[in-house]
Design a protein that fits this description.
The chain is built from eight helices and four strands. The protein is rod-shaped and about 120 Å long. Helix 2 packs antiparallel against helix 3. It has 244 residues and is an alpha+beta fold. A hairpin with a 2-residue loop joins strand 1 and strand 2. The chain has a four-stranded antiparallel sheet with strand order 1-2-3-4, with helices on one face.
Amino acid sequence: MSAEVLTEEFEVLESIYPTELSIVSDREIQIDVEPDEAIDGEHPFKLQLSVHYPDEYPDSLPHLTLVAIEGELEDAERETLLESLTEVGEENIGMAMTFTIVSHLREQMASLVRKRADQLLAEETEKERVAIEAEEARTRGTPVTVESFKAWKIKFAREMAQKKAKDEEERLRALSPKEREEWKRAATRPTGRQLFEKNKNLEHDDDSFVEEGTVSVDISQYDRSQLRVDEDEDDDGVHFSDSD
């Protein structure tokens, strides 16, 4: 490669990139590169492309390196960009290729920014979907089945029994020994309901306690008005005298 050929390419690059190009030496330059289109809402993204030209250039590819100036560049993204630039360089062997490489890099940077934006949107959409499903599940609750209701009922009865035992234990602790014994006797005494369930024919069994010869009275046939008449007659037959 003649120095005149590379100098001529440098002059062309300086006219195209007057503020972006920095000539490091007669065989190396640096160019600040941005995406060829701006995407609203995205953070600034700028890379520095270093190009080192071998003696065989343009019949041999230049050595390329990429460094992030603004924004971030993952290692995998850097490798992908360099591979793409190498492919473009191989298509232009024998010709001045720096401008073509830079133009392709700007296009790939724009594609990378769009890809990042799409990925971020997809992640936010997924987070929103998960949050909505979680809220729906929270408000919807767990469907009740026969099995789940039986399990809940057993658990609830156990918890209530434990609570009752604890309350009774605390109540007993506050009583005197005499009161505690009285409370225990009362607790073991059967209730009216228990007695009734034990002998549902109790009302008929009461007939066995009636003495023989006892006359039964039908209270529904009892005339209360006649009682008042009899009481009045008794009052009329009472006489008071002053026998002091």
